[in-house]
Every structure is written in C-alpha cells, then in structure tokens.
Design brief:
Layout lengths: L12 E4 L1 H8 L3 H13 L1 E5 H9 L4 H11 L3 E3 L3 H18 L3 H13 L2 E3 L13 E3 L7
Length: 142
Amino acid sequence: MGPSGAPARVDSLIVLDTDVLIDVSRNVAEAVAALQRITDEDEPAITIITQMELLVGCRNQWELRVLDAFLQRFQVLKLSEPISEKAVELLHRYRLTHGLLMADSLIAASVLLHELPFLSKNQKHYRFIEGLRLLPYPSARL
C-alpha cells in the first residue's frame, strides 16, 4: 500500500536512504530538489531501517510528531526472512573488504530483493554491491 492507502505501483517506487532525508530535514537544496523530482514522477519509499534511524534521531515529542507526519508520504518496506538472509549474505561478502555496516546491509538487501532503484548521498557505502540499482546523487534518475 502507498502512503495514501492505495496500492503502490512497485515499478514507480524509488527508495531513499536515510542521509537524503536528513538533508531534506535540514533544507539542503540538492536533497530537497531530488525528493521533489521523485515525487513529481514516482513514489518515494524508505526501508523500515531508515524509519528507525530517523526515529532514533528525534530529540523530543515535537520532532517525533513532525517526523511521523513527514513519513506519511513514503511507502515503508518492511523486513522479511529473505531480506534478513540477504543482509547476512551481503555482510559475509562485503564487511571485511568494503566495511559494509549492518544497517546498510539491511537497507541494501531490502532494495535488492524488491528490485528497486535506490538514492543515497553516501554512494561509497553502496556502489560496490553487485546488482544494486544505485542512482547518482543528487539526480533522481539514471
């Protein structure tokens, strides 16, 4: 389901990384423009890992309410057993060679298994992952 409750077209989703949304919250022009381009053409999505990372960053109830309202516009990709297994596989493959972190492996596994394009400001965290459709930042389309 999309944020409005209507079924989302999977082919129209673009997954955004936590760093992009943090920059949107800070009103960084390139992040705001990238999000605008996505919402003009496609439906923005995030993983539940990104949702949790943003929740952890809230310092008070007001920020939590603002975040909850902001996140209503995104489809949230939940974790599943196949995503967990893929994340472990990614850690086995890339942790020692590229420094892949646990949260990034879960986000990448979610994106890979849903076969969706992914936008991250931290390209170096993901560019080595085979099969990941990493969009160039700040552009929202390849």
